[in-house]
Amino acid sequence: MAQPRASTFVVHAALIAQLGSAGNFNSMALRLIQMSDIHFGYEDAAAVAAAADYVRAEPFDLLMLTGDITQLGAEKEFAAAAVWLETLPGPILSTPGNHDTPWAGLVERALMPWDRYNRLIGPVTQASFIAPGLTVRSMNSARGWQIRLNWSKGEVSAGQARRAGEALEAAAPGARRVLACHHPLIEVPGEPMTSRVRGGQHAARRLVRAGADLVVTGHLHVPFVQALPYGDGLTYAVGAGTLSRRERGEPPSFNVITLEDDRMTVAVMAWDGTALHLGRAWEVALRPRPKAMLDISTGTEA
Predict the structure, then answer these.
(1) What's the pLDDT tens digit per position in 209-267?
(2) What's the CA gap between 175 and 192, in Å, rounded?
(3) Is the peptide bond before 59 cis (omega within 30 degrees of 0)?
(4) CA distance 181 to 126
(5) CA 302 – CA 276 distance, rounded (Å)
(6) 298-302 contacts: CB < 8 A, separation 24 or more?
(7) What does the alpha-carbon distance between residue 46 and residue 252 come to, in Å, rounded to a whole number?
(8) pLDDT digit string (tens) for 75-111?
(9) Distant-in-sequence, close-in-space partners of 285: CB < 8 Å, separation ≥ 6
(10) Rounded to the nearest 5°, which phi and psi values hold at 19?
């Protein structure tokens, strides 16, 4: 296994200093790393290498990949992504994006849009990650083709939303509930592009009813945090930037998400061409956990 670059440790120390010492990295916190829109075939190789060094060096509970792992859905791009993933520690949960279908070959795109993803990355169907204090569900919002001109936009069926909601509702008492998909389910004001997810608002409302804490997405290539405008306002849409050369006004980056009993911190680790540094950070309130919550360090009831 490759040794972490020295800059990784400097970045982590700086991150702790900038976020303060109020427990952002205590042993009871859940730490999730979110990477998105790597676009193998057009990736920023240095940024991808630095991100890999980071996850090898820093403890985390789950690495989430929220789509557009490849640029053109080509076999060689998926093969390169698979080799890279083999070098990373787990656990890893991934979901595809609109670039992960074959861009060359309409028949394959229409009839077998996810064959390469399934073979080389993982199952496209909804998958779950369950650990003490945490339940994460994936949901595929991308399509091989659609009855509209722009196939890059998202779609979530009523059945997908129902199954995802039921999976989160089945989480253990006190567990944080996270949904991972590629497209933001509702539009993000002021960002450089739209998602226009068919069924997105219905899915967002269903996830709020299921008590979701986070809906993590990619697609826009810029990081953001916003509360979904439904229910108690404590379900957050969290978007990650890109690790590709397809920048949209922001440098390549990924998110480090820290979940504590009553709050969440999202730290954007940005690549400046030579090292990772803290780009932006958000801190928001989370729903209070029930008293009979799980002790996430032991998996026993508190």
Answers:
(1) 999 999 999 999 999 999 999 999 999 999 999 999 999 989 999 999 999 989 999 99
(2) 34
(3) no
(4) 10
(5) 37
(6) 298/132, 299/132, 302/174
(7) 10
(8) 999 999 999 999 999 999 999 999 999 988 778 878 8
(9) 234, 262, 263
(10) -85, -10
